[in-house]
Amino acid sequence: MEDSELDPATPACLHLISAFLAMEPTDCLIHFARDCGKGSITEEVQSFIWEHCINKAMNENNPPSELYAKNFLKKIIVEVESSSHDVLDRIYEQFAYYMTSLKFLFIIGFAEVLSGSRSERVVIPLQCSVNMLEGDTGCSIWPSSLFLSEFILSYPDIFSNKSCFEVGSGVGLVGISLAYVKASKVILTDGDLSTLANMKLNLDLNQLNTGTEMSQGTIQDPNLVECKYLPWESASESELHEFSPDIVLGADVIYDPLCLPHLIRVLAILLNPKKSKSHPSKDRNGDSLSKNGCTDYKQHGADYNTRPLSRRETSNDSYSSKSGNRDDNGFGPCGGKAGCGDESSNSNVVSLCDAANERPVAYLATVIRNMDTFDCFVRLANQAHLSVVDITDIWKPLDLLPYMRSYDRSSIRLFCIKFS
């Protein structure tokens, strides 16, 4: 049964409308919204906010800014979802509308600004199609893409004059960052045509020329970025060999267990371009990867739980899937952090992932939302002879987005992957 409509003349409702019009801090608005719902932001309260704040007030002569309204809606969504309640569709839709136009300002050299040194600013405008805001990650900007972009801009020498290939490129933020640091070739791929079209629009917004197919030889135009439709499950080995990248990148691509065998196959081919086309990736027991994927993960769980992340690294250098050794964040005894254990173990990681000397190499940034899914990724990587090392705290990116309080770097891990 639907709740009765709230009366805007009641003190709590009047306070909420007045606070919105006065552009009070969003925490204050949430406080008044809870008052209206007697402790929680019910669907009735959400409907009231839509009618009397967002819809009505935004149509007046001097409405609050869209940024302010967007932040308020984001707070509402987080508050309601964290209470396991339903968010009204119109709230989601309006938030998605605000989110379709974004602009990121990466402030390079921000730490030196206070001392009078010159800072460099990289402004990246982006458009986002509404469908990209859907899915199990919710309505949020992609923190792993931001982290990977900070990594690229913090260590430009790693990527400068290198051929770079991104799997699952999304809005194109990572690719734009690669073009900025003058990678010799930038190839962006995605398996969704609408996402690819949106990505090309963003490249145009950033004055980057785009191509739809592979060009022959070296790219002459430094502003040319390739866009390629590449579903992981149908990408052929010969097609992948044509790319021959120095560096492979990916942000939040470890999310669906059903996609992981295809992702691992793509990574194994890209990271081992000289591998014979007639021999598929083998696990340690000789079974082909396609026959021994995530479907039998539970059957082999006991065996896998005793394995380290990589065949080559010590347990102090790598993620350990042994459940008894995980910390609260699900990481192994060292948690992938520099300074945990002796110095030689850390130097081994740096040596293994020496970005200046070893090619090809992959860098994947991800938020580990489900440990079973990540364990599955690690297991399949081992079968495909890929070493996976957590380098989050060894190759720390600079904080180039100091104004983004909603961007939680602590939840993101950066992994270096090589064919071993």
UniProtKB/TrEMBL annotation:
Gene3D superfamilies: Vaccinia Virus protein VP39 (3.40.50.150). This is Nicotinamide N-methyltransferase-like. Keywords: Methyltransferase, Transferase. One of its GO terms (biological process) is methylation. GO terms for molecular function: methyltransferase activity. It comes from the Eukaryota. Residues 20-96 form the FAM86 N-terminal domain. InterPro entries: FAM86_N, Methyltransf_16, SAM-dependent_MTases_sf. Residues 275-330 are annotated as: Disordered. Belongs to the class I-like SAM-binding methyltransferase superfamily. EEF2KMT family. The keyword Phosphoprotein does not apply. It comes from Macleaya cordata (Five-seeded plume-poppy).
